[in-house]
What we know:
- The N and C termini lie far apart (about 45 Å).
- This protein has 2 domains: about 1-85 and about 170-250, Rossmann fold (3-Layer(aba) Sandwich); about 95-170, no CATH class.
- The protein is of the alpha/beta class.
- Helix 4 crosses helix 6 (about 130-140), helix 6 packs across helix 7 (about 155-165) and helix 7 (about 155-165) packs parallel to helix 8.
- It is globular.
- It has helices at about 1-5, 45-55, 75-85, 100-110, 120-125, 130-140, 155-165, 185-195, 210-215, 235-240, 240-250, and strands spanning about 5-20, 20-25, 30, 35-40, 60-65, 70, 85-90, 170-175, 200-205, 220-225, 225-230.
Amino acid sequence: MTDQADHILTTEGLTKEFKGFVAVSDVNLKIRRHHIHALIGPNGAGKTTVFNLLTKFLIPTGGHIRFGGRDITSAKPAEIARMGIVRSFQISAVFGHMTALENVRIALQRNEGTSFHFWRSDRSLDKLNDRARELLTMVGLERYADTTTVEMPYGRKRALEIATTLALEPEIMLLDEPTQGMGHEDIARVTELIRTVAKGRTILMVEHNLGVVSALCDRITVLQRGAILTEGTYAEVSTDPRVKEAYMGRAQ
Length: 252
């Protein structure tokens, strides 16, 4: 009972094969409630495949996934989103020719069960504007509310994506490479943003930037060739000789 109360998302023996190739092998994860947990590892380690399994974009070959103690192994992507598992994609997933405010408002509509009703009058959507502006302020985008998304800097688009994710009121946010392709200033801004939005939530993230991981994460799982190599705090995993070897092997 204590284990279920402490851990919001768990996997047991999670496995995925593609025509005989084992991409994920017997992965047992325990994501503690209200923690920031990172999946790291060299390229090809299976991190994104694990994310796809957790968010049901792939069906496991074996094993179980539980959320809040409930078995969700057979659930559909839309079902788990309604349960509170929401993923932010590696490539920014916002509507480029809408304003930042309109993007967040659409996410709020989806949470109300009225998504993509573009034909509704602006007046009927005005009630969502206050909440949309609150979310934009939370991620530091208040001055971009009326800016068309395609005109926003890359780092700000990623912040907008986090705002649209927050609009779905997630219990756990899965962030896939949130700082990929960013310069130092944007990385610092998004790192601080993740720290802010993590309050009262659980975050599971795939992230290559180990500086970001060390600054944010309570616990880290290191994957190699689809299996868990080790797990622990950043201090523990960063001094593990197996982790150093795995990363040096990637660089050679």
